[in-house]
Design a protein that fits this description.
By secondary structure, the chain is an all-beta fold. The protein contains no helices and five strands. Helices cover 0% and strands 68% of the residues. The two termini are 31 Å apart.
Length: 81
């Protein structure tokens, strides 16, 4: 199936943010309610490097994702290396 996504990065409050919207433009059986155009992701994420020592920082991120098509919601967090 075809999948379209758009992401808008921005900075706010000392964090790097990104807002995402994704959709499928045609009917697909992969998404529960996608009988035609369907929004499949609305997301808001942030990332920041946390300074541990003078020579080492830990890049962490978190993202909240909602899928209106499947009525699912998720929170993802981790470390980028």
């Amino acid at each position: 199936s075809t999948f379209i996504t758009a992401t808008a990065p921005f900075k706010l409050g000392g964090l790097e943010w990104s807002a995402t919207i994704s959709a499928v433009p045609f009917a697909t059986s992969f998404y529960k309610n996608a009988n035609g155009f369907a929004v499949t992701e609305l997301g808001l994420g942030a990332k920041k490097e946390i300074k541990i020592t003078d020579s080492f920082s830990l890049p962490v991120f978190g993202k909240v994702v909602v899928n209106p098509s499947t009525e699912g919601a998720y929170f993802v967090a981790g470390i980028s290396l």
